[in-house]
Amino acid sequence: MTKMRIIVSGGGTGGHIYPAMALIKRLQERDMIEDVLYVGTEKGLESKIVKNAGIAFKTIEIQGFRRKLSLDNLKTVKLFLSSIHKSRKIIKEFKPDIVVGTGGYVSSAIVYAAHTMHIPTVIHEQNTIAGVTNKFLAKFVDKIAIAFTEAADQFNEKKKIVFTGNPRAQEVVNIQKNDRLTEFGLEPNKDTVMIFGGSRGAKPINQAAIATMSKFVESDYQVLFVTGRVHYDGVIKLIDDKYLNSANVSVLPYIDNMPEILPDIKLIVGRSGATSIAEITALGIPAIFIPSPYVTHDHQTKNALSVAKVNAAVMIPEKDLTSDSLFKEINQIMSDTDLQQEMSNNSKKIGVPDATDRLIKVLVDLVNK
């Protein structure tokens, strides 16, 4: 069994960090790590997540380019050059067998530095639309791992591309049904819809859900409405007490270890981030996606369309989201068990339950080579 010294880097958003953490976790489970180091930024979300997981963590200072001409871009170039210098020092000290980047500006320096030092490198692209960092790094790395087949069109380096899926898929695929819904005042055996706008919540999704409460309380299914912590107090004030006290509805700010409850959910309503899609398709859960129109290159819409085109999900553009459009789509799916089954089967067909092991094979092949 190959044991590796591995540097992993990815930052900025959970979409870059959680796949990296899933990769490390699986390598540990398979006893394939001699040593691991995570390189991030001190200010990034990765600082908290990686440190809490007890993984060795080093930082570099780096920032992204502004889209408009700005003096800040001169600082960006200076930081990039100094971060490469620091990255080379980190690499010399750690002596990795391979370096993996999962996106975000921080991964650009360490992966590029590894390339210049003739160390095997891999990048992982989670979205249908490749990020700026991965597009830059594609010219230099040995392999480009992708989670959506559509992402292949984003890179000119076709021979480097390997479809692996998103490591988060394998992390959740073995979770079994459980009774966690009882923690939220819901029945564990009743069909459940979860409405969730992401870790911070999404105001347009919350507004549509609030306006639909009177219909939810009379439905044959129950609704778990997760508002996001920053919106919770405001949402509660707008919902009539008789709806809040209904046995059919539970309103929460956030759920820790949310993947644990996914096997007990019949339908998910929410954003179409890459991590969410990886988890949903691995478990085969029908979905209604309301993509965020505010993300770079509108990649959430492209993500959602990739699932909707095989009839594993329905997409409602945010501009078309109303109480009526939301309830119509939810009710159509929840009142038709054959449709639920068809969507679930289609979702599983595009899910990648062995995504992390596929990515690990790419790493092993490069290290052995």
Automatic annotation (TrEMBL):
UniProt enzyme class: transferase
CDD domains found in the cross-reference section: GT28_MurG (cd03785)
SUPFAM superfamilies membership: UDP-Glycosyltransferase/glycogen phosphorylase
One cellular-component annotation, GO: plasma membrane
Subcellular location: Cell membrane
Positions contributing to UDP-N-acetyl-alpha-D-glucosamine binding: 13-15, 127, 199, 255, 300
Bilayer topology annotation: Peripheral membrane protein
Catalytic activity: Mur2Ac(oyl-L-Ala-gamma-D-Glu-L-Lys-D-Ala-D-Ala)-di-trans,octa-cis-undecaprenyl diphosphate + UDP-N-acetyl-alpha-D-glucosamine = beta-D-GlcNAc-(1->4)-Mur2Ac(oyl-L-Ala-gamma-D-Glu-L-Lys-D-Ala-D-Ala)-di-trans,octa-cis-undecaprenyl diphosphate + UDP + H(+)
Family, as annotated: Belongs to the glycosyltransferase 28 family. MurG subfamily.
HAMAP family: MurG
Protein name in UniProt: UDP-N-acetylglucosamine--N-acetylmuramyl-(pentapeptide) pyrophosphoryl-undecaprenol N-acetylglucosamine transferase
Chain's gene name: murG
